[in-house]
Fold this protein.
Amino acid sequence: MTSDAELIPSAIAATGTGSLPDHTDANTLFSDMIRNIALDCVKAGSWMIGHIKANIRSGDELLSISSTTDDGKARRRCEFSKDVKDYSMTVNVIVYGVERHKVAGILVSNVRRSLGDVDMTVHSEVGCEDPECSDPACQDKDHRRVISIK
């Protein structure tokens, strides 16, 4: 691994679907989830949050939230105006100073802690999880790209 590995961001994207219990304040629930992901990344050693973003769709409505600060403050671009039952979401995390696999674990554990049993797939857009590869910015198409955390 290169000596400047800490300058290469860990970029993780995840998609998921799930259902919320009736009368759940979805706007607050998802915002708290993003805040907790940021705080846990900082606890794990992240020295900079590139961004942590989520877009959650329920029916014809969209909640879009993001955090870029060490205190995890989440900003909402748009919110749900009615109760949410079934939803689909995309979350992406870009942080510096924490390995991709650890970031993926932080993401999944916070999603599950906030939302319960969510059908999730975590993707690694840059680099790979091939145990024989030492390139932190690997672009080899033959190397594994999906991080499975069940």
Summary: The chain is about 25% helix and 35% strand. Residues 60 and 80 are 10 Å apart (CA to CA). The first strand starts at residue 10 and ends at 19.
